[in-house]
Every structure is written in structure tokens, then in C-alpha cells.
Amino acid sequence: MNGSRIVGEVRVVGAGLLGASVGLGLRAKGVDVIVHDSSPANLNLAIDYGAGRLAKDTDNPTLIVVAVPPDVTAAVIAAELAAYPDALVTDVASVKVAPLAELREAGADTDRYIGSHPLAGRERGGAISARADLFIGRPWVITPHDSMPLGQVGVIEDLVLDLGAVPVTMSAEQHDSSVALVSHVPQVIASLLASRLNAAPESAMSLSGQGLRDTTRIASSDPELWVQILGANSRDVVQILRAYRDDLDGVINALERPSARGARRAVAEALSAGNTGVARIPGKHGQDRRFGQLVVMVDDKPGELARLLTEIGAAGVNMEDLRLEHSPGAQIGLAEISVLTEVEERLAAELEAGGWKIAGAWK
Amino acid sequence: MNGSRIVGEVRVVGAGLLGASVGLGLRAKGVDVIVHDSSPANLNLAIDYGAGRLAKDTDNPTLIVVAVPPDVTAAVIAAELAAYPDALVTDVASVKVAPLAELREAGADTDRYIGSHPLAGRERGGAISARADLFIGRPWVITPHDSMPLGQVGVIEDLVLDLGAVPVTMSAEQHDSSVALVSHVPQVIASLLASRLNAAPESAMSLSGQGLRDTTRIASSDPELWVQILGANSRDVVQILRAYRDDLDGVINALERPSARGARRAVAEALSAGNTGVARIPGKHGQDRRFGQLVVMVDDKPGELARLLTEIGAAGVNMEDLRLEHSPGAQIGLAEISVLTEVEERLAAELEAGGWKIAGAWK
After folding, report:
1. Which residues in chain B have Cβ-Cβ distances shorter than 8 Å to A281?
2. Which residue in A90, A165, B126, B171 has the most C-beta neighbors within 10 A?
3. Among B258, B193, B339, which Cα is nearest to A245's?
């Protein structure tokens, strides 16, 4: 156990996935964590899990972390600011402009509030999924604002670093427009695509491949939470969705008369713009290196993939990414392994010498 | 080497990824494969790879497989029907209504033609990526039509089975509307989403997560090929895209005034419809069983994942799926392992006993 950067008590309000995970992570660093939740059942569960202790009259927290649904975030922040006049307050909601604006409207003491947002979580939430390591290596955005002394940002940075996350500082406006693009709009797009499948015949579904699975995976997210997120960031989300719709209209118009002059060019340009856009997404470790991919055939039986990875490890090669791909009806899987391009050829040769079938290799 | 079901010579026209892979797969079964390509360079490459031999005047193929771009598929089929009056001809294009209609218009001998379509391939194509096992376990749609004796379908089925694929029979119309939904529309949706990233600031891109990566992965596909596919299946694609746009308009309207009466319900219903839609996608092996997922922390160094999978194998558990997840800046990965629900608890207990950290488990 390493010591914490955070000094003093930390009060966590809201014992869901994020709140309970903050509690578990800080407790692992030896911090005295107080947990509170409006639901006694949730609270007891989180305390049983070791996320912290019950509040006492003598509590004097340095920092309060509000981890409640977006809809009630501002009200809870305001109540905590009033109840603990010496504490700095942050929150972990997925939107940052709306809570600050609401607090200002309500005349809350915003010079003790700094919003933040860990880019962490999963499709399924709840305290039952909480874990001390939820935030390790994830970006955690901190959004300072004018009405507070900048020095206090350091306290939030200590929290982020204690939890193993990577602090990223930007304005609330920058944050909201960024997550609209990389998180909120993709959610809408994927959900609408998946909803098209409701009317499909079974025979069509049987032709589903990895492309459909990938494009719709996040459509299994919790509607209740996402309604709140989308509602609170509607301005930025709508702006991007409108531009998306205009592009979509362009493709629809072109495909309505695919042999008309310019139609093919319009579709080709839309597809090419997708090529350049997707290339901008940072890969593993946020770096811009190029990786090669090896596709290796693996029998679908216990131990086969382990045997493959043992040989890769024995070759001294670190996989940058791994993906196992299956087809309906197949008793064979394809393991797609990303490795640094400089070791790719050597690894392919060693695996083939070991009897593995390399199904393909691309840069 | 097992013997082939196919009897006689097979001529493959077009030595790209699919054609060369058909050649390699049939040659592995001992079939005499003739390869042809309008590009001598492509042809020589495919022959060097072992996909078949050069054509001779004495060739008398039983079956001809046309594997050329969609735009020229019908013309090449017609030429092959004329050149080899005893052969049955199939093609592997991603659309099936258009080639048959074009052939009929041109007065071709369609009673010797049966279209087909293997649901196989990758974002990157070319003979250089060809492999004998490309089709193993994949669905391969066969589209019989009225103007031909049904008995000949058996020859195409032999081809499909020789290549290890799973024959699926449906009409050309059924095929085209099915792939419009599960393949062509997702391509458009993903490309348009990825193209939104072109204007994003670096700071926004640094917040990218697995959700964005998944929803946009196929946006790296080849625009030239996809323009042809979308153009040839424009009617079915446009129909679905229009319904998608209507749904999108509904969400945009709701988010333009998120606190208006009914707005939240509209957004919630769109998200819920996504939940039920994505649940219809068949999982591994095309079966409907429910799997549990274990998320295990894995240090990002050579051999760690292998060690994990070895222990899973030693526990006698077969992974149904595996996904490795990374975060920017993280030196730790999360391995998300799908296993049958009946072994999930036991495996979690055994792994934890072995010192692994289970980060979460959901049904």
C-alpha cells in the first residue's frame, strides 16, 4: 500500500459504480473515506464492499466527490457545499457546463467547486460492479473555472493521481463538445442503427458479422442514464447530429439515383472522409505509432489460445492488442494480434515455424 | 489432405482476395484450379502464391467462379457463359439482384448461372491477403432462381463445403435486403460518424474510448469497392437509411428542446429500441445461449495474457470470446472473457484463488 496524495477525509456521495469505485480506490491508498447514498440499501452494499464508512457528526472532509446521476448532480453539489463550508467539492458527471450553470443560478458557493469527469465505466453499472482499479490509466478531465483560485485544482489532481487516472485539464465547454463527439453522438448513432434490427427477419440476422457487432455494441447501454446525459449536453450533441444528418442526406440523395452525374463521387467522398476520420483515433497508449496485425488460426478448444500466447511471450513480443473473431457455426477462431511493425515479420516467421497458420498480415 | 466434393476443373476469374482465396482453398483439396485475371501482374502473383495454374486451350471447367468487382461482375459472367458452354457459373459479389437482372437484359444463358456470396473478407483486400481458410465457418449465401434446374445448386454447395463455409440458401432479393441491413447500412453509418472526427481538436480525440473505436472501425474500408456495392444495392440501402434518418430526426427534434413534454420519452424509446435490436445479433456459433463475462486485469507485459489463458485452459473452461481492452496511457489491460454462464462462477473463483484480479462479472 502506497500513501495517498490526498490529505484528510474524503466524502463520496452516491454509491453507484463510480462512487463506490472512488471509495474502493482511495481506501486502498489508506484514505479515510465516508460514503453516503440516499438509498440505505446501496449505502450498506458499498460499505460491505469496503468502499468507506458511514458518516459521523464529527466528519470534516477536505474533499467531497459527488457521484450521482446527471439530473440531480447540481442539487447535490449545492447541498454538500452548504453542509460542509470548509470542503472542496467535485463531481464525476459526464457533462460539465450544465451543473456549473445551475449552481451559479442557485447562488451556490462555486469558488469551492471544480467539476471533473473520469472517462471510465462500462455498459453495466451499479455498486456491484465497482472496483478499485476502474480508473487506472483512463483520462480524467478536470474543468477549472474563473470564480475559483487555481491552486485548488491541485487537490482534484491528487484525487485523480491517487486513483491511477491521467489528469486532463480543459474548460467545461471544451469538455462537453469533446465528449459530445467521441462519446454522446456515437451512442445515439449506434442505438439508432441497432434499433433497425428489431424488424429484421432471422435469416438476415444469421448473416451478421463482426462489423455489425462492433458498430452496435454500445447500443446495450442503460437508456435511463443516457437520457440524462444527452439531455444535459443537448446543444453540443444536436449540433453534431445535424451535421451528421446533412451528410446522411447527401448519401441518401446520391444513392436515390446512383447513376446520376456526381452521385458516385459524393458517395466515394463520404467513404474517404470516414477513412481519414477513423485514422485520427489514437491507438493503444494514446500514441501514434503504427502497428502491424497478424491473423492466426486457433482451434476452438480449451488451451489453444493460451498456447499461442505463450509462444508469443516466449518470442519476447508484447501484444499491443488482441481480438478473437468467430463466425456463426465455426469451430475455429481467428486471433488478430497487433504488434509493433518492427517485430511483426519475425513473429510471423517464428509462429509459422511453430506450426501456426498465419491467415494474413497487414500494415 | 481430404478429397474434394467438386469434380473436374474449376476456373476462377479475378485474382483478388476472394478469388485467390477460393483458388488456394480448392487447391488444398486437390482440385485442378485455373486462375485468370485481366491484370497479368495480379495473375502472376496469385499463381506464385499457389492459387492455381494458367489457362490452356484444352480447359474444360465444370464450374467457373467469377470474383471481380461488382461493377464488372455481370459482364464477366456473360463472357464466361459464352466462352465455356458446358460450365456452371457462379460469382461472389456482395450484391445479387443486379447481376442477374443485367444478365437477363443482355440475353445471357442464365440457366447455367447461380449467384452466391461468401460473408467473408477483411477491410484490406488484394491477392496478397488471400488465404486458403478465409471462408472457414463463414456463411456463404447461394441464390437460386427460377430459370435454372434446382439440381445444379448442389454443385455450388459442393464448392462452399469444400471451402469450409456454411451454405445458406435464399432468394437474390432476400439476400440483398439482408446484407443491406447487416453490412451495407452499418458501413455508411460508421463512415459518416468517422468523418465527423476530421474537424475535431486533438484534445477531443485524446478522450476517445473503446466505444468510439468500435463504432468506427469499419470506416477504414476501401471506398472504391464500397461505392460499387452501395450503388448496386442502392434501393435496399436507401430504404433503410431513410428510416434511420427519420429516427435520427426524431432524436434531434427531442434534443432541440430536451425539457419539452415528451422529449425525454422520445429519446428513451430510441435508446431502448437499440437495446432490443442489439440483443438480436447472434453470438458466437450463431447460437442463442447466454454467456457471462469476466473482466480480468492483466499487466501489460509479454506472457501475462498467456499465463491467464493457460490457467483458464487448465480449469477446463473454453472461452467463447475474448477481448483485450486498453486505455490511453495505461500499462494495464482488461481481458474481457466470455464463458458459458454455468462455468462462470467456478472460473472466477479459481482465477481469484490463483491471484488474478477480477474486475467485474455480469450476466
Report:
1. 197, 205, 208, 212-213, 216
2. A165
3. B193
CB B304 within 8 A of CB A298: no
CA distance B11 to chain A (A): 23
List, as one string, the DSSP characters of B96-165.
-HHHHHHHHHTT--GGGB-EEEES---SS-SGGG--TTTTTT-EEEEE--TTS-GGGHHHHHHHHHHTT-
> Which residue is closest to A120 within chain B, CA to CA?
B209
Look-up of cell digits 451478421: A208
Residue A204, in any domain of the structure: yes
> For residue A181, what is the domain's CATH number?
1.10.3660.10
Residue in B133, B203, B277 nearest the CB of A219: B277
Instruction: Look at B181 and A168 and tell me if their CB atoms are within 8 Å.
Output: no
Residue A87 sits at φ, ψ, to 5 deg, of: -95, 150
Give the dihedral sign, CA A175/A181/A187/A191.
positive
Per-residue pLDDT tens digits for A160-213: 999 999 999 999 999 999 999 999 999 999 999 999 999 999 999 999 988 999
Distance from CA of B353 to the nearest CA of A (A): 18
Residues of B within 8 A of A272 (CB-CB) are 223
Most confident of A132-141, A317-326, B277-286: A132-141
3-class DSSP state of B19: helix
User: For residue A245, which residues of chain B lie inside 8 Å, CB to CB?
Assistant: 245, 248-249, 252
Chain A CB contacts of B285 under 8 Å are: 326, 328-330
Task: Report the SS3 class of residue B5.
Answer: coil
B5 belongs to a structural domain = no
Q: Which residues of B touch A209 (CB under 8 A)?
A: 119, 182-183
What is the per-residue pLDDT for B360? 55
Radius of gyration of chain B (CA): 24
Cα distance from A25 to chain B (closest Cα, Å)? 12
Please indicate, yes or no, if residue A152 is contained in any of the structural domains: yes
Do A303 and A263 lie in one domain? The reply is no
Query: Could you tell me which residues come within 8 angstroms of residue B53 by beta carbon, excluding any fewer than 6 positions away?
Result: B32, B33, B34, B35, B47
- Cβ pair A274:B191 closer than 8 A: yes
Q: DSSP code of B11? A: E
* Strand-strand pairing, B139-143 and B115-118: antiparallel
CA distance B332 to chain A (A): 7
Above 60 in pLDDT, residue A285? no
**B41-98 tens-digit pLDDT:** 999 989 998 999 999 999 999 999 999 999 999 999 999 999 999 999 999 999 999 9
The residue written with cell numbers 472466477 in the block is B348
Inter-chain touch A211–B183, beta carbons under 8 Å: yes
Query: Average pLDDT, stretch A2-18?
Result: 93
Q: How many CB pairs under 8 A join A and B?
A: 466
In a shared domain, residues B324 and B204 = no
pLDDT for position B256: 98
DSSP single-letter state for residue A201: -
Contacts of A217 in chain B (CB under 8 A): 211, 214-215, 278
Give the three-state DSSP class for A66.
Answer: strand
pLDDT at B332: 61
Range of the domain at A57: 10-170
Give the residue ranges of DSSP H helices in A88-222: 97-105, 153-162, 172-179, 185-195, 202-205, 210-216
**Any idea which residue has 491528487 for its cell?**
A158
- Residue B147 sits in the same domain as residue B250: no
Q: Are B162 and B153 in contact (CB under 8 A)?
A: no
Is residue B152 located within the same domain as residue B188? no
User: B325: pLDDT confidence band, cut at 50, 70 and 90?
Assistant: low
What is the C-alpha separation between B132 and B95, in angstroms, rounded? 23
Report the chain B residue with the minimal C-alpha distance to residue A296. Answer: B133
